[in-house]
């Protein structure tokens, strides 16, 4: 026995006396300084004793997997090695429960936890399975008949640090382990805490952040005690179906909660989905709830109405480049309401609480300007040179609610609203008919309370030029080496283009442009007639901006 082997035996004996488990790798001789890598393949090898010949004495479990799978099953734990499905989710078979655990997910926007895998119920989402997946916005578990006896379990930290997760739906109950949805600051809706009488949701006290804004939405059976305990401790809202004491309302990208539980109603703004550039908080709102606008980067303008008095913790945390109009009725704003926010501008009345708060917390503050007339959008039209399709575009207006598109009706000789688009849209694809011109205008409807009126005047008029009609009744007459074409005039045509097939190049070449829409014939005198006399003719017209629009080819 050399010195290294002796030391290995001594250390192994010491560990054994201390009660610590000793594995084969701990009693092996030290290496001579070479780096020994431990890879995934080595995990699959069976343990060997010093007396075994690695070529002949290695044993293998011959127990077949009860999960109808080739995955290796650990006899001690009954857990199989990982298997993956078409979605990229990885699973482990749990022998004791004859179910599967989802051990590793994928970072996709909408996650659906399957009811079954390999014909067995998926009963668990494993520890850290979706940890730190920043693209996830919704999570839903598929329903199934066996969910009642196999309520899904969300293991420790399964969805921790999913910072953009917004909605969770486990309609057949769930058991939430520690930190299951920890540090998910945008999570605001949890559906299905008590769908069946005997199958409630269980929640550990630290399954969510202590200051979570989540609202538990339950069925008619009520709220289970574990959820009540968490909700009461952390002042979390709950909504029960058909219960008038809890009312949840969605309006224009924001969500509101009417709380009648204390006997007097208070309406909270609880969430903004960050899809609108301008947001007008509902006039009934008294409280901007905690984390209501957390992390909003697309919202640039927020108008808070006069009834609002309170802005809670982290209500605008992590927001970027946002202007907020605050009424003089606001009397309380949490010190961390703008935690981690940048580019914030508060508009407030002189001497108001909001102005004093902004100055104290080093936020840019400006005096609320006097109302002005609603700006009128400037409208223009452009055309796609390839297909001739028109697009209306207009200048955006701040604090817009909707844009209205109007088209001139030749029968009534009035402009008629033909479409409404949201505040984030400043373009429209108009309809056009061959050979016709159509007039359009646009106007804007703004959020109430910003301007002297809510609607702008109609914009300037633009005329949309339709493509010319198609030529028809094409005929040809050959005389010697000359070939004469005739056709019926196309509606709206300002001219025509003729093409002849080039047999050598195997493509059509333009041979003549007629710049008069009234000319409806042409004689090819070049003598370069091809064998099949293949020609095309089509009409064209030109828009005011110089774009040429074409009708269809006609042989």
Shape: flat
Strand content: 25-35%
Radius of gyration: 36 Å
What top-tier CATH class of the largest domain fits best?
Answer: Alpha Beta
CATH architecture of the largest domain: Alpha-Beta Horseshoe
CATH topology of the largest domain: Leucine-rich repeat, LRR (right-handed beta-alpha superhelix)
Poorly predicted spans: 3-78
Can you describe this structure?
This protein is mainly β. It folds into four domains: 83-243, Alpha-Beta Horseshoe (Leucine-rich repeat, LRR (right-handed beta-alpha superhelix)); 251-367, Leucine-rich repeat, LRR (right-handed beta-alpha superhelix) (Alpha-Beta Horseshoe); 379-465, Immunoglobulins (Immunoglobulin-like, Sandwich), CATH 2.60.40; 472-550, Immunoglobulin-like, CATH 2.60.40. The protein has four helices and 39 strands. Strands 1, 2, 3, 5, 6, 8, 10 and 12 form an eight-stranded mixed β-sheet that branches. It is flat, with a radius of gyration of 36 Å. The protein starts with a helix and ends in a 5-residue tail after the last strand. It holds the Pfam family LRR_5. This is Leucine-rich repeat protein. Keywords: Signal. Residues 1-24 form the signal peptide.
Protein topology:
Layout: H1 3-17, H2 40-43, E1 83-84, E2 90-94, E3 99-104, E4 110-113, E5 116-117, E6 120-125, E7 138-141, E8 152-154, E9 167-169, E10 174-176, E11 189-191, E12 202-203, E13 215-218, H3 225-234, E14 238-240, E15 246-251, E16 254-259, E17 266-272, E18 278-280, E19 287-288, E20 301-303, E21 310-311, E22 320-325, E23 332-333, E24 342-348, H4 353-360, E25 364-367, E26 379-383, E27 390-394, E28 400-409, E29 414-422, E30 427-428, E31 437-446, E32 462-465, E33 472-479, E34 482-488, E35 495-502, E36 507-514, E37 521-524, E38 535-542, E39 548-550
Parallel strand pairs: 3-6, 4-7, 6-8, 7-9, 8-10, 9-11, 10-12, 11-13, 13-14, 17-19, 18-20, 19-21, 20-22, 21-23, 22-24, 24-25
Antiparallel strand pairs: 1-2, 2-3, 5-6, 15-16, 16-17, 26-27, 27-30, 28-29, 28-31, 31-32, 33-34, 34-37, 35-36, 35-38, 38-39
């Amino acid at each position: 026995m050399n010195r290294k082997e002796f030391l290995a035996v001594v250390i192994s004996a010491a560990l054994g006396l201390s009660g610590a488990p000793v594995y084969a790798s701990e009693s092996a001789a030290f290496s001579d300084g070479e780096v020994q890598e431990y890879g995934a393949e080595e995990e699959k090898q069976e343990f060997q004793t010093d007396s075994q010949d690695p070529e002949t004495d290695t044993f293998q479990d011959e127990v077949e997997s009860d999960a109808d799978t080739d995955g290796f099953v650990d006899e001690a734990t009954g857990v199989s090695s990982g298997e993956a499905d078409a979605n990229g989710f990885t699973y482990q078979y749990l022998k004791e429960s004859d179910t599967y655990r989802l051990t590793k997910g994928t970072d996709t926007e909408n996650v659906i936890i399957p009811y079954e895998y390999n014909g067995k119920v998926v009963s668990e989402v494993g520890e850290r399975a979706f940890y730190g997946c920043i693209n996830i916005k919704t999570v839903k578990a598929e329903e199934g008949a066996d969910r009642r006896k196999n309520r899904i379990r969300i293991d420790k930290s399964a969805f921790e640090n999913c910072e953009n997760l917004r909605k969770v739906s486990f309609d057949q109950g769930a058991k939430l382990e520690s930190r299951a949805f920890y540090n998910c600051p945008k999570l605001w809706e949890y559906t299905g805490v008590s769908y069946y009488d005997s199958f409630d949701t269980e929640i550990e006290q630290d399954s969510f952040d202590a200051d979570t804004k989540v609202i538990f939405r339950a069925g008619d059976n009520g709220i289970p005690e574990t959820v009540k305990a968490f909700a009461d401790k952390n002042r979390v809202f709950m909504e029960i179906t058909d219960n008038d004491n809890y009312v949840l309302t969605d309006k224009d990208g924001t969500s509101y909660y009417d709380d009648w539980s204390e006997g007097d109603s208070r309406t909270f703004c609880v969430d903004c989905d960050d899809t609108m550039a301008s947001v007008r908080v509902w006039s009934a709102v008294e409280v901007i709830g905690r984390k209501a606008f957390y992390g909003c980067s697309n919202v640039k303008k927020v108008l808070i109405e006069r009834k609002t008095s309170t802005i809670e913790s982290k209500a605008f945390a992590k927001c970027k480049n946002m202007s907020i109009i605050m009424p003089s009725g606001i009397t309380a704003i949490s010190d961390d309401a703008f935690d981690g926010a940048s580019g914030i501008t508060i508009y407030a009345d002189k001497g108001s609480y909001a102005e004093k708060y902004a100055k104290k917390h080093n936020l840019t503050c400006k005096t609320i300007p006097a109302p002005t007339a609603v700006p009128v959008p400037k409208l223009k039209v452009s055309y796609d040179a390839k297909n001739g399709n028109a697009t209306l575009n207009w200048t955006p207006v701040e604090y817009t609610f909707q844009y209205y598109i109007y088209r001139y009706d030749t029968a009534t000789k009035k402009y008629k609203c033909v479409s409404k688009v949201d505040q984030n849209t400043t373009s429209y694809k108009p309809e056009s008919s061959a050979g016709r011109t159509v007039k359009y205008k646009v106007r804007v409807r703004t959020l109430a309370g910003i301007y002297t009126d809510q609607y702008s005047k109609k914009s300037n008029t633009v005329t949309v030029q339709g493509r010319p009609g198609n030529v028809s009744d094409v005929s040809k007459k050959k005389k010697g080496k000359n070939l004469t074409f005739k056709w019926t005039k196309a509606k709206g045509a300002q001219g025509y283009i003729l093409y002849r097939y080039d047999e050598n190049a195997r493509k059509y070449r333009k041979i003549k442009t007629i710049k008069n829409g009234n000319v409806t014939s042409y004689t090819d005198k070049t003598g370069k007639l091809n064998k099949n006399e293949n020609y095309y003719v089509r009409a064209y017209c030109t828009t005011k901006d110089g774009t040429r629009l074409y009708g269809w080819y006609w042989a």
